[in-house]
Design brief:
Shape: globular
CATH class: Alpha Beta
Radius of gyration: 16 Å
Number of helices: 8
Number of domains: 1
Structural class: alpha+beta
CATH architecture: 2-Layer Sandwich
Strand content: 15-25%
Number of strands: 4
CATH topology: Alpha-Beta Plaits
Bound molecules: adenosine-3',5'-cyclic-monophosphate
Order of helices and strands: EHHEHHEHHEHH
Strand order of the largest sheet: 2-3-1-4
Largest sheet: 4 strands, antiparallel
Length: 151
């Protein structure tokens, strides 16, 4: 199976609740590689653009307000089947329906303040990763090379 790269966002609720470390730990423990990572405060224009597919939905304006209310942590995650694995780790959108053991089930507080975002398909993953990251921002980490180098 080919390696995939998917977008993850630690949302403002989780950043404000000091859950960034917890979420990164779960990502690494699950064996997903962090190919890129950046903290950013989204502008309204950027958030509206990113969530363009949801424009016109009743929750759209509130979602944009929430996503711009504080900094987010943007990540590109890589691995075999990374899109589905990250979705599995997150759990369903609504934390009330998300099983315990998933990030949203354990750390989300409402359908809006659901701690994390993830791309919903392989096609969208590529678009979403490149919305936030250029090719040069994405690292290929070779543990063999790291351990061989130096003394
Ligand atoms: P996310 O995976 O980032 O994609 C769209 C976001 O809209 C979703 O997570 C939720 O945070 C937010 N949202 C708010 N209300 C709803 C709703 N009724 N249905 C789906 N998403 C919602």
């Amino acid at each position: 199976m080919a390696k995939e790269t998917t977008l993850a966002i630690v949302k403002p609720d989780a950043v404000a609740s000091k859950l960034v470390g917890e979420i990164l730990s779960r990502i690494e423990a699950a064996g997903l590689e962090i190919a890129a990572l950046r903290m950013e405060r989204l502008s309204h224009a950027r958030a509206r653009n990113f969530y363009y597919v949801h424009r016109g939905k009743p929750f759209f304006e509130s979602l944009v307000d929430f996503m711009t209310s504080g900094p987010v942590v943007l990540l590109a995650l890589r691995g075999e089947n990374a899109v589905a694995r990250w979705r599995q780790l997150m759990g369903p959108t609504d934390p009330r329906k998300a099983p315990k053991g998933t990030i949203r089930g354990d750390l989300g507080t409402s359908i809006e303040k659901n701690a994390v975002h993830g791309s919903d398909s392989v096609e969208n993953a590529s678009t979403e990763v490149h919305f936030f990251f250029g090719g040069a921002d994405l690292f290929e980490i070779d543990p063999e090379e790291v351990w061989r180098s130096g003394s």
